[in-house]
Specification:
Layout (H helix, E strand, L loop, with lengths): L1 H37 L2 H7 L5 H12 L5 H13 L4 H13 L2 H10 L2 H25 L2 H11 L8 H5 L9 H6 L1 H35 L2 H7 L5 H19 L3 H14 L3 H9 L1 H4 L1
Helix pairs in contact: 1-6, 1-11, 2-4, 3-5, 4-5, 5-7, 6-7, 6-14, 7-15, 11-14, 13-15, 14-15
Length: 283
């Protein structure tokens, strides 16, 4: 009986979190579907054909409005790279679509508060700047050619089908394309595809978070994260956060419920942020 009660508590916690994040997911996927329906992959690749600040800004904006699935982000980054986007712009797009997507920010506000959303946004922008500077200093034409040759091998990943399907509507103004029957169909298709690409990771994240919240006492987290020693906690948190993310192995959106549990358990602010950003490590 005790086992059933514990399982029930874990499931109730998971479902409660799911109910809280449901509307941000619906809103985020809808906005993402709208953008994907009116902006083709070819047009995106053309706009990202260089590595100037304007190109990288567009890459960041396209990433923010794209699917939040990390695997789909990798596949789509490869797709636009092969269609003409610069390597730097493709990598910036991948980073933004993993850590700066709309629904991720909203879910962070709902479950954890605006400071975490702000940290995610500022950290993502800083990572974009760092990538641009590092690639400007180190990226050579030979390395780009090697990357292109590898991409052209067509090795199949988890979400290659998602990246290959470009159902965008062309011809006419933004609103005429969006409000046309084909536009509605495209938005709905992208909406369903985005759900299909992340539901496993979200479900895993919610179940893991529910289990940890229900079964692991706060005393364990307080001891594990050195909550009674703020100095050590600030150092340990950013180091432990990525390791936990590697073992949890879910996408950035799916990581947020678990991040909320870790935060309530005593991990430092920096530890939470590093945990969420570590989604890029597991790819």
């Amino acid at each position: 009986m005790q086992i059933l009660t514990s399982i029930g508590q874990a499931l109730f916690t998971s479902l409660s979190m799911f109910w809280e994040i449901l509307w941000p997911l619906i809103l985020g996927f809808t906005l993402s579907g709208i953008v994907q329906a009116v902006v083709s992959h070819q047009a995106m690749a053309k706009a990202l054909g260089g590595d100037r600040p304007a190109n990288l800004t567009l890459a960041t904006l396209f990433g923010i409005a794209s699917s939040s699935c990390s695997y789909a982000a990798v596949a789509l980054a490869r797709s636009i790279f092969l269609k003409g986007a610069s390597f730097t712009s493709a990598m910036v797009f991948e980073l933004a679509s993993t850590n700066l997507v709309i629904e991720l920010g909203i879910i962070l506000v709902v479950l954890m508060g605006w400071p975490f959303m702000a940290a995610e946004f500022v950290g993502g922008i800083l990572m974009v700047i760092f990538i641009a500077v590092i690639f400007r200093l180190t990226l050579t034409p030979k390395l780009v050619q090697m990357a292109r040759a590898h991409a052209e091998k067509g090795l199949m990943g988890r979400m290659e089908g998602h990246a290959a399907m470009d159902m965008s509507v062309s011809g006419g103004s933004f609103f005429s394309r969006l409000l046309s029957p084909r536009g509605f169909t495209a938005v709905s298709n992208f909406f369903v595809m985005d759900w299909a690409s992340v539901w496993v990771d979200i479900a895993l994240g919610l179940l893991i978070a529910g289990a940890l919240a229900a079964w692991v006492p706060n005393s364990f987290w307080n001891a594990f994260f050195f909550s009674n020693n703020p100095t050590i906690a600030k150092i340990e948190g950013p180091l432990v956060g990525p390791l936990v993310a590697v073992f949890s192995f879910v996408c950035s959106v799916g990581n947020v419920p678990l991040a909320a549990v870790l935060w309530r358990g005593g991990i430092s602010f920096g530890g939470v942020v590093s945990f969420i950003f570590a989604d890029l490590i597991i790819l």
